[in-house]
Design goal:
The protein is an alpha+beta fold. It is 45% helix and 12% strand. It has one domain: secretion proteins EscU (name from scop, 3-Layer(aba) Sandwich). It has a two-stranded antiparallel sheet with strand order 1-2. A hairpin with an 8-residue loop joins strand 1 and strand 2 (25-31). The radius of gyration is 14 Å and the shape is globular. The relative contact order is 0.17.
Length: 107
């Protein structure tokens, strides 16, 4: 069940994906001190932390260890492609296409 977030509480969602399974998975999420911990651990491990309150609100409805829903593929893929461009100096539309192909082939 979706629990409304108080407007002054920080929220965070951590996603993970692999070359084998391109669809990102929610691996951590929380509000308040849990969110602060997620952000701190990400930064401590050299991971990029992006602020997107609207996207986080939508991702908070996804169960832990669950793939993101197809409705969020484009938003998340665009974010990951942008991050890839920053990290590697080039954009990749192939990543977005690969996620869409994988979804069409999913059972």
């Amino acid at each position: 069940m979706n629990q409304p977030q108080p407007p002054d509480r920080i929220s965070a969602v951590a996603l993970s994906h692999s070359a084998k399974d391109l669809t990102p998975v929610v691996v951590a999420k929380g509000y308040g001190v849990v969110a602060e911990s997620i952000i701190r651990v990400a930064r401590d491990n050299g991971l990029y932390v992006h602020s997107s309150p609207d996207l986080v609100r939508l991702l908070m409805d996804v169960d832990l260890d669950a793939r993101i829903p197809p409705q969020l593929y484009v938003a998340v893929a665009e974010l990951l492609a942008w991050l890839h461009k920053i990290e590697h100096g080039k954009a990749t539309a192939d990543y977005i296409d690969a996620i869409n192909r994988q979804d069409r082939n999913a059972p």
